[in-house]
Sequence to fold (274 residues):
Amino acid sequence: MRVTGIGDCGVDRYVDLGEDRPGGITLNFAVNARALFASSDGVGVVTALGTDPESGLVRRAIDRLGLDSCIATIDGATSIQYIDRHSSGEKIFVRYEEGVLGGYRVGPRERAVIAASDVLVAVVYSQVEGLFQTVMDSPSRGLRAVDFGDLAGVTGGVGIVERYVDRFHVGFFGLGPSDAALIEPLERLARASGRLLVVTLGAAGSIAFNGGERSVCAAVVVPRVVDTTGAGDAFAAGFLSEYCRSRRVAESLSAGARRAAVVVQELGAFPWDG
Fold:
C-alpha cells in the first residue's frame, strides 16, 4: 500500500521557546502514519520547499523519519507557522506564512505520485486553495481523504466541502463543541452524499457521520497535556491506519483518539531531537 500526504511540510516556530521544529499538517500526518501503517507500506509526502535555511530542517526530517518524498524546490521561503502555548498545553496560533507553498501547483511529476497512491490525504486552508484544487483535479486509484481543518477562511465554509464531496471518501474537521452551526450541516451533507465525515472536538472527543450513521468516541484522558500541536493530524493518521484495514468507523475513531493522546503529551506532533 502507498500512502501519500500532499500539502504543507514546513517549520513550526515556537515563540515561547525560541525553537524551530519540522511540522505542518502534511508532515505531521505522514510521520504518524509511518509509525502506524505496516512497515511494508510506503508513506510519503508531496510538497514545495523554499531555498532558505529553514528548508534544510524540513528535508532532514523527511529523510531521517523514513518518508518517501516528491519535493518541488522553489526560490523563496519555506512555510512557517508561528506557535505559542497556553499553560494548559493548548496551542495558540500566532500567524502563518505560506511562503512558496502559496503559489505551488501540482505538475506531471506530482500527478504521477498521486495516481499511484492507494491512500491520498490532502489538506485545504485559505492560503493553499489553488494547490488543493489541482490535487482534487488529479485522479488517484484508492481512498482519498481531505483535512478541512476548522473551515476558517476557506471559500464558502461548508460550501467547499459540498463542492468537492464527490472527489473524496473521508473528510476530517477540527472543530469544537460550540460549532453546531458547522457540525449540523456537515451531518446533513454526510447523509445526502453517503460520505464519511469525521469531526474532532479536542477534549470533547470525536464524531463520525458515515452517511446516515453517527458514531461518537470520547477522548483519551492523559496525565498532562504538553502541546496540542498536530493532535488532529495524528488523529487522522490513527483513524486511517485502522480504517484502511477494517473499514470499521468506531474502531477507527478509537485508534485516532489513542494516537492523538500520545502526541499531546510531548512537544510537537512527533519526537524530534534536531
In short: The chain has a mean pLDDT of 97. The longest strand covers residues 42-49. The chain has one domain: 2-263.
